[in-house]
Every structure is written in structure tokens, then in C-alpha cells.
Amino acid sequence: MRVDVRALGACNRLAEQGAKQAAGALSDLTGTDLAVEVTGASVASGEDLAESFAGRESIGVSVGLRGGLDGEAVLAFDAVNADALLSLLPGGGSMERSAVTEVGNIALGGFLDGWANYLGKAIDMTPPRYFEADGAAVLPDGALAGDGVFLFESRLDATTTDLDFSIYMLPDSGPFRDLIVGKTAPAATAGGEANGGTTSTAVPYESLSTFSSLAKEGSANAADNIAMMTGLETSVDVSRLRFVPLADVPAEVGTEPHAGTVFELQGEPSGYLAILFEESSAAAVADAMLPMDPNEPLGDMAENALCELGNVMTSGFIDGWANVLGTTITHSPPEFVHDIGASTISPLVAKLSERQDYGFVIDTAIRTEGIQARCDVYALPDERELARALDRLSES
Amino acid sequence: MATRVLIADDSEFMRNLLREILEGEFDIVGEAENGVEAVNMYEEHGPDLVMMDIVMPIRDGIEATTEILEDNPDATVIMCTSVGQEEKMKAAIKAGAEGYITKPFQKPNVLDAIGSAV
Fold it and tell me: Where is the CheC-like protein domain (chain A) (predicted)?
């Protein structure tokens, strides 16, 4: 099966519209404004998903889907916020499960309306089921099986309270396959439309899983490089390949101050890579790398240290891709960034947005032991070049 | 005499919410938790109006509406649902529903829908 990246973009738009509808319904029901922060499709192994949900306790409401779309959808929120939600519902405090179940039913109904209307087919929902779950058990059935599945995820954040929701939808193959399957010719040769060739964004489904595995390897290499240069023990917390609207990426990085390095990638695929630390993490990691105390937390010495670290990490990250894809990928010298999170990555997103609206984002969280430090790596490859490289990979 | 209403929804929370909205102006004759109960309670109480959820266990609201209208062509049913899909609404109207309201709703939406249907 070939997955058309543009068709996946259309699905993403549907998921985003659905999430907005769900946010509107939840806002009406709770009297609290909710905004859609992020909507994307991710391809991750069950093992990776289990890791990224570890330690979370959630309350969820799930519905089964049949008809226009088969699968399962879940509305979930942190268990610690249950009382806050119930207090916002009329008479909800006395009904707990029934109230929460209905909240899920209403939100998921709104989420699915757009999909059904787009498909021109009804989507039947099973009656909602309330559940409490630890870790990744909150995800729809089947999300943890296999090497990689398309899991749509939307995050709805309340603007005035800590009440946040996530919607997960795991479509079965079948009708969903018809939506995303590439109907175009195999991916184009280098040069694309500009050289008179055909440009396709259809990639073999299996190669997306392969690329997701590659991203994981790259993350492990980058983490090892941090360990070598700082002497700190590191572990990779999260590594996921996601397909998201590029415009959403800055909001994901957030408004907290960050420091790190950004790079332009040349080769196939080209694109951008950002290695970002929260400000305190950046200072702690730089401190661990320097032989003496720096004069100021993120001054020139720290900047140099972080640039060198970024250089080594980036090489570790992309070498694995190049080897497996059979291409050569090089990177620009590091550019140090120190600003609020969204501003550090916005210039990269703006450049890539000249070519595409959606992108595969590989996000990786690397955690260090001993000191509190976390590093997020965002890789933003050119979708067409990535499609070509993946296509060749599947043929070799 | 107040309009006699049957509420059919599998959510206790939603049944209570509808009851709060309707009590005082309408006579609530019963509350059904699924489509089968809705059909049985319709036969038992003969209400003027049914507020019917679509997604319910055992038998959904569209099937229950079809069954009620087969034996009671003059029955008035308003779909009251979280699902706003066009195809679902077409199916509800085809089954004979007089109208529908989409959850979450406010009291004025409910009263307007009832005013139009009854």
C-alpha cells in the first residue's frame, strides 16, 4: 500500500476540523474556552507509544466506529483533573461516570461529524465506554500492536484552567486505506516538476515504519553523543514520527525560554533540524561540558559548548538516515538560538512552509540522569525528497 | 394540560439535564436507557413527544423511532444527539423524526425544537 502524503494532509485537516468541533462542544458544555493546540498523525511502534505514556494516569471515554470509518476513538484527560471537570458540569459532581461518559460522547460525536460529512457516509458510533487507564492503555485498541500505525491525536487545552483533553483516533484499514492510499505514480525522480518530471508524494506504508525506526536509531545516537560529551547518563524518552501541519510546530515548542542549535540539512532529504533545551537544561548541560564554571549561565562559553554538542548530535542523528536511505546528507554549521521556544523554531518552519503545508516531524526527547535536563530534537525533512528516498528504500 | 414527554438516552447525566430543562413546563412520563425500553415505554405511556438519543445500546434511536412510528404514525420524535453528521440526520428524518438538536444544548434550543415539533 502506498500512502499519499497529500491525502494524509487532507485527513489531518479533517482531524483538525473535528478537534475544533469537539473543542466547541466541550466549551459549551463546561463554560470554559478550549483551543485546539495540536493535531497530527503519528507513526510509532507500540513500544515507543508505551514509553511515551509511561507514568500517566488517565480517564477516558471510548467509542467504536463503524460505517464510513472503522476503528476506535478515545477522549482522555489526566485523572487528577477529574474533579475540575465535574465541577464545571451542571449536576456533574453527583454523577461522575455518567457525566464524564457523556462529555466524551459529545466531544467524540463532534470530532467525527466532519469526517462523516467529508466522506458522505454515516459513521456509526457504539455507545460510549468509560474507563480508567495507566500509561498507554488509554490508547485505542490496536495502537500498541505492531511496528507502526496511524494514530491521529489532537490536544485541546483550556485557556483559563488546567483542564486539557486529548482525542485519539485509530482508524482500521479498509475505508481509511482508501482515503490515504496513493493513487499517483511512484515517487518522482530528482528534479521533480521543475525539470519536467512528475512529482509524487506517495510513499510505501512499510517504509514509513522503517523511517520511524531510523529516527529512533538517530535519537539513540544523539543521546549517546550527549553522554560522551557531558559524562551524563542519557536515555531516549520519546521518539515518534508525526505528520502535522507545520504551522502547529512552534506552538508545540511552547512559550518557555529555550536554548540550542538549529541546522539546515542538504542532500536527500533536505530540511531542518533543531536541538532545543529548556533554558535551565541548556545551562546545566553546558555546565557539565565545561571544565570550569562559566561566567554567566548561557554566555559565550556555554554557547560554544552547546554548538559543539549540537554538531555531534546532528551528525549522529542523520548519519543513520543517510546510510539506510543510501543518500548523502550534510548539515550546515550550527546556529545558536536562545529565545522563547516558539521563536527558536519559527524561522525553520517559515522556510519549509514555502514548499509544503504539512511535514513529517520526528520528535525525540532525550533525558539526562543526575541533573534535570531534557532535550527535544525536531527534524523537519522536505516531504517530497523524503518520499523519493523512502520509495527507493522500498524498492532496494 | 402539559405536553407529556418521554426521554430516551443511555446517559443518566443527559437524562437528568433534560429533565431539569423540561420539568415545570412539561410532564415527564418516563426515562428510557435504550431503544428497546423507549419502544416499550412509548407503548405503555403514549407520550405526546419523545426526546430520543441516537447512539444507545441494545437498539439505537433511529431503529427505535422507526419501530414506534410503524405502530404509531402520529408519534412525535425529536432526535437529541451528539452526532451532527448529515447522513445520520438524513437517516433520522427518513425514520420519521420531526427534528433534531445537537448536544450540548441550552434550554432555548430544546424549547425551540419542541415548539416547532409539537
Answer: 95-129, 301-337
In a domain? residue A192: no
pLDDT digits (tens, 9 = 90+) for B30-61: 999 999 999 999 999 999 999 999 989 999 99
Closest of A109, A149, A117, A107 to residue A14, by C-alpha: A117
> Is residue A223 domain-shared with residue A319, that is, in the same domain?
yes
In our burial notation (b when 16+ CB lie closer than 10 A, e otherwise), range A284-314 reads bbbbbbeeeebeeebeebbbbbbbebbbbbb
Put simply, the answer to whether A110 touches B84 (Cβ < 8 Å) is yes
Tell me the per-residue pLDDT of A237-284, one tens digit each, with 9 for 90 and over: 666 778 888 888 898 888 899 999 999 999 988 999 999 999 998 998
CB pairs under 8 A between A and B: 74
Same domain, A141 and A207: no
How close, in Å, is residue B14 to chain A by CA atoms? 7
Clarify whether residues A172 and A218 are in a common domain. Answer: no
HEC string for B31-90: EECCHHHHHHHHHHHCCCEEEECCCCCCCCHHHHHHHHHHHCCCCCEEEEECCCCHHHHH
**List of chain B residues whose C-beta atoms are within 8 Å of the C-beta of residue A127:** 10, 55-57
Q: Can you tell me the ipTM of this complex?
A: 0.76
Indicate whether A6 and A120 sit together in one domain: yes
Q: What is the pLDDT of residue A196?
A: 35
**Domain assignment present for A194:** no
Cross-strand bridge partners of residue A219: none
Statement to judge: residues A13 and A125 lie in one domain: yes
Please check whether residue B53 touches A, CB under 8 A.
no
Quickly state the pLDDT bin for A191 (edges 50, 70, 90): very low
Map residue A124 onto helix, strand or coil.
strand
**Test the A interface: residue of B19, B79, B83, B93 with most A CBs within 10 Å:** B83
Domain count, chain A: 2
Find out whether A67 and A121 touch, Cβ atoms under 8 Å: yes
On whether residue A54 sits in a domain, the answer given is yes
Is A189 inside any structural domain?
no
Q: Domain containing A55: what range?
A: 2-180
* Among A147, A180, A213, residue at a domain's last position: A180
Contact A313, A229 (CB under 8 A): no
Cα torsion B75, B78, B83, B85 to 10°: value is 80
What does pTM read for this prediction? 0.76
For residue A89, give the CATH number of its domain.
Answer: 3.40.1550.10
